[in-house]
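Worked Example 4.2. Consider the chain below.
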Amino acid sequence: MNLQIEYPAAHAAHAARRPEPASAFRAQLPLALFDQIECGLIVCDERGAIHFANHAAGQELASQHLLQRQSDTLHRAPGASGDLDGALRLALQRGRRGMVRLAAAGDQLMVSVLPLALPDAEEPLALLVLGRRQPCSDLGLEMLASSYGLTLAERRVLAALMREARPIEIAREHAVALSTVRTQISSIRAKLGTRSVEGLLLLAAQVPPVTGALRMPSATYAPAALAMQALTAMA
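Applying the procedure from the previous section yields the following structure tokens:
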């Protein structure tokens, strides 16, 4: 008697899957980690050629507000101020860390430029760490609010405070009385254990920089050694 057993599709797919080599796993792990970080990370050489850019950096480059990617080369956007080229030269030629403020039309971005010390690198490389545009991401703010049991109304007020909105502006936006907003701010401060709105901003800035969704590793290739060295440079 021949017995035929039919496996569920998911089980069959799992059975057919082959384990990836350990070397492939080690190469993919840093890239997957980088794409979960809210801060943009770019690795480039003295010519500005981009060797790696995580998801957050890709979004910044795609916006073309202050930084641009042209033929896989990093450029400061036309009209933007900030000596990015000078900071790159200091990092690549003298091994000096620096920071640049890029600004244009009311927009600004702080960029740290760090030398990468790779013994086997064919040429010097630099890591650019792009600053966050707000104290924490929307997901980070939601995680913070959930951890401290904020109500939906309080979460909306906290999000507005992160945008530097004044209580009177929040009241108008939410169509409530100013006294209501002030009561909500007092409740938020009590729950989060801060004595001022500035304390709320400081606490929000301490939230880990996580992205707003799970992502696949960046399409931009980077060797595992390069990715791990970038992590070391950020320490």
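The longest strand covers residues 107-116. The CA atoms of residues 161 and 182 lie 12 Å apart. Compare this with Example 4.1 before moving on.
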